Amino acid sequence: MSSSISQTSIPSEIITTSSSSVSHTVPNRSYMCKFIHEILSLTDHEIERLIQSDNFHLLHDGIQKFYYENKNLKENEINHTFEDFLHKRDFNYIHDTCSYNNKIFVDLFSNLKPDMSWNCTTTGSQLNDYSSCPFFFKSIIELKTRKLKTKDYDQIASYLTSILRYSPGRKFIIGCLTNFEETMLIMVLYDDTINQIKYIKQATVTQLTGLQILTLFLSLSDTQLGYNEKFINILSNKKIVFLHYLGRGSSSFVFYCESQQEQLIKFVLKISRQNCTKEKFIIEEMNKIKRKNMNLIQCMDMNFDDDYADYLITFNLRGVKLDKLFMQRFLDDTQLLINTWQQVHLCHKIGYIHSDIRIGNMIMYENMVYIIDYSSAVQPKTPSYYQGCLSTASNGILKILGSNSEKISLYYTDDGISFLKCILLLKPYFQHYTSIIKKAIEDNMTCDILPTYEYAMKLFKDKNIIKTLVFLEENREILSVDDLNNIIIHTLKNEKTDDYHIDEYLQKLKL
Ligand SMILES: Nc1ncnc2c1ncn2[C@@H]1O[C@H](COP(=O)(O)OP(=O)(O)OP(=O)(O)O)[C@@H](O)[C@H]1O
């Protein structure tokens, strides 16, 4: 399988670890080179005017003095000293984050720590829990005390990418890499049309000195950095208070919140870089046709009435991830499995394929399992870039992704296969292969997943669940929603019985 998989989709989790924690490094990241004025969308003349201004001179001379006084400091010391320097000059919102440990910050950057973060904080000069949410970041500065290296570009580019991929509607972000004598601007852009991130670095040919470029960077406005405050305003206008951070997906952060308007309503808020209208629509349509007592997640109408409201979605219940004990119950309790599957079937009934069925997209609430995250859902015969996870994708999908990176069509059966693969990955006899698949995702070696499934499915060909999987793979393109439902329910009901002749049942269906 080619590396194209990692470009068109964001690998997702296997069991509990978040998909996006897998890797923020893109192998062989390629950069376009542009002049400073192109990166900043300014003319040479505008840049010239800026650097002639009194404010620029004042800041530039201050940084120069700072540099000469502190050039012998160690890297971790210089961050802190530079923070002090900036705060004294009213740059209150740039923080030394070398050792910042807040959970959201740690999750956002996958345990790595940018040197300095330029945030939009509501609480003055202190970083607090929620000001390290991705959509509060304006930029990142990486401070080095040695010559800049290629790996430094990659490091800052991955920080900027993390912010960009979780910032609703944000098109680009500009960061700064400096050792004071040399400064480089890096721009990361999101091209929604081709679902790809692009990297731009500043051309080394420039008349400006490192200190001038750094001063110029610090003088940039929010808009020039790609930051848009309008989105944040919705949250403050609606007086939404964040109570708990619940987790993140590959394009969203999720919080338990309280609305401080008339009624103190509590709800789950997902803030996504992607438009959530489709996900909202699907959940609402499913709720219209669901049976009375069926467990199903619901959206809440918070009247966000704003352009940016499309990047927000609210849910009625706050679940928890399936823990070890519950996963065991999930495996043993046939009725629980059927209830969970029925939510996927309902999604099919309204004409959508969930396309990201995995344990990480199941939450537990009052002893029931709820399927979440309908954001990757697609309609059959509608080619699109695959956004689901790879660890539970059907072999059919894995094969196609291995040979091209174009849009692909999915089938309802793909969800059935993913559902059974979720169970398979938890089975004791499959654990060796579960580890291989998990490692393949972590190491970005997604090409190993398909052969692992193919090999293990031959090895365990007598297991009932594998017999169904083989049948579903063979008939992936032709099974109707109802046939698929019957097969899955039949398999779940009979999966644990030894004298079960699934072949006969499946052959009957084939006829
Ligand atoms: N209702 C909820 N209750 C508790 N936690 C939730 C809820 N909804 C989402 N979460 C948490 O937030 C995480 C991200 O949510 P979700 O999977 O919907 O985001 P996403 O960005 O669309 O994900 P994906 O990576 O699949 O594209 C979930 O894995 C889960 O941990």
From TrEMBL:
GO terms for molecular function: ATP binding. The keyword Metal-binding does not apply. The keyword ATP-binding applies. SUPFAM superfamilies: Protein kinase-like (PK-like). ATP binds at residue 270. Keywords: ATP-binding, Nucleotide-binding. This is Protein kinase domain-containing protein. It comes from Rotaria sordida. The lineage of its organism: Eukaryota, Metazoa, Spiralia, Gnathifera, Rotifera.
